[in-house]
Write a structure and sequence with these properties.
The complex is a heterodimer of chains A (about 300) and B (about 350).
Chain A: H1 3-30, H2 38-56, H3 59-83, H4 88-106, H5 132-136, H6 141-159, H7 161-171, H8 173-178, H9 183-209, H10 221-231, H11 236-258, H12 265-269, H13 271-284, H14 287-293
Chain B: H1 2-14, H2 16-27, E1 31-36, H3 46-61, E2 65-70, H4 77-88, E3 93-96, H5 102-111, E4 116-120, E5 129-134, H6 136-150, E6 155-160, H7 165-181, E7 186-191, H8 198-210, E8 215-219, H9 225-233, E9 236-241, E10 252-258, H10 261-272, E11 281-283, E12 290-293, H11 301-316, E13 326-327, E14 333-335, H12 343-347
Parallel strand pairs in B: 1-2, 1-3, 3-4, 4-5, 5-11, 6-7, 6-8, 8-9, 9-10
Antiparallel strand pairs in B: 10-12, 13-14
Helix pairs in contact in B: 1-2, 3-10, 6-7, 6-11, 8-9
Classes of the chains: A mainly alpha (about 300), B alpha/beta (about 350).
Chain lengths: ~300, ~350
Amino acid sequence: MTTIEFFLAGTMSAATVFLLAALGELVAEKSGMLNLGVEGMMAVSAAVGFVVTYETGSHIVGFTVAGISGVLVSLIYAGVAITFLANQVATGLAVGILGLGLSALIGRQHESLTVEAAGGIYIPILSDIPLLGPAFFQHNIVVYLTLAIAVAIGYCLKHTRLGLAIRSVGENPNAAQALGYSVHLIRYGAVAFGGLLAGFAGAYASTIYTPLWADGMIAGRGWIAVALVVFGTWKTGRIILGAYLFGMVSLGELIAQSLGASIPSQLLSSMPYIVTIVVLAIISTNAARLKLHAPFALGESFDGSESK
Amino acid sequence: MKSLVKKLTKLSLALTVVGAFAHSTANAEPLEIGLLTPSPLADVGWSKALADGLDKVKAKHGDNVKINLVENIQEGPDAERIMNKMVGDGNKFLVLGSFGYMNGGLKLAKRNPNLSFVHASGYKVAKNFSPFTAKYFEGAYLMGMAAAELTKTKKLGVVSAFAIPELISTINGFTLGARSIDPEITVDVVWINSWFDPAKAQDSAKALIAGGSDVLFSNAQDTPSVVAVAEKAGVYVYNLNSSMKEYAPKKYLGVVKTDWAPFFMASVEAHMAGKFDGKNQWLGMKENTVVVEDWSSDISPDMMAKIKATEAAIASGEKHVYDGPIVNQEGKEVIPAGQRLEDGAILGMNWHVQGVNSPLPK
């Protein structure tokens, strides 16, 4: 694999972690639930996914159980923030910290072990094209499924009745309730879906992208996923772009160094964050548009009364 | 003691077994040794190397010592709280396993003059507080020689945490060793600017391999991230502290191991004798702290003999990795032939030797 092939292929691989988690967070936020516990959900699922894959030897079983564990952690958040009306920001942070601790406990016996990474797919002809083949058509199936999920979510939110229900709950829960939607049920569902995707993101990180378990290996990627949702102004297409841009920038840094580029590596390491700030600044110049996309009731608890 | 015996006699009337147990422990209070590590205690890595060192102390002194491990403690105020608690719990000899425990540990040492402390990678010294560091560059030099024989592309790659003197001098040692065999060899370095990010470490390793490196050095990475990638890609790899051969059965070049047992043993025994004397402990092959093992069988017997001879010369002090002439990255001679770089210059190293392609982060 040449450097350029690795750059393109690595970008897709790195972006998948961000994208899966960000898509889940997008759905949760669209329903008005700001879940800051993504990092913790990913960590728990990464640990669970790794342990299960290690013990069973099956990536599919590992992914499934990791997804379930992501849902379970997200339900802790949902229970406290939706049913008990606790502050969403504080609850999300608490669940995130809980998740990090829990992941260390779960992975305790498997610290620094490795598993065989799940292989990539092989498409006749396409995978054999020089340059493009290794770069785009030899990835693990999860990479392509993630893109498919992204398109499906984009379509669902925009064009289906379910999407409309989720959005209405996030924009104006009172109105949604008046229309006969169960605000709490929809929010539970959206948060759980977010947990599922965060779970897949964690499993992807610990069994395919970096096939080993080490406490703390998520290393802030959950936070980048949360930032990506804002970065993408709650639009699926932009979130995909953002995830790939992040993947590219974070990888480009390492490649630039390996090629001996004479740019300070600290500057390169901070590039993903600098890019975020710049793009956010550009997006925010049109405050009205940003507001238009942000779910109006994001972060607000809903107690069922219409007193507001 | 008398009253205790009396009490015991009384007790033993009713509780013979318990009385006997209490009596045996009352004979010799074990020395409690506390170890504080920055990362989880895995099967491999830095923390494991420290724990292994103490295991040997335990093996020798048996019931006279008791080891208490506290693992995965982040550097910072929380570490200070935990250190305080360890002292409160009765630990009399503390091994502080990370640079960032320095100031908190030193404060504690000053407050408790009867306790002894050894502290990894630091530079502050007190009467009962010794910093300890390994001369990794001695082992890395030998690895460079082996790498020089095995490389086909004449490009070596290093995945490295932060650009601090300890790591820089290790990379330079590696480079000097390789170029002592083949002066055409160059070394690429990727700084990931993180002590802990296995995903980034793996991507860096892949980037180096894609760029043509066919021997990798996993510099101060506590997980087998780089080692596993190298095995899969079919390039040679080595690492520091503890052997990761099981992660790369085919392509493992060897390990620059740190064996802390001799140093811990001497320090603990000095403490027991009341003779602990805090000073800067910079330990290498001579002290049997830096040990190179698990050599790949792909290295030719000729080269192996050369390596062994160099190892002996370094251990005896006859040869030093930083013997002149040494030329820096800009092509300027830092130390002329016949002279040796001073210890201070190695401990504070902030430049690369000739042959390292990558610029040093400033």
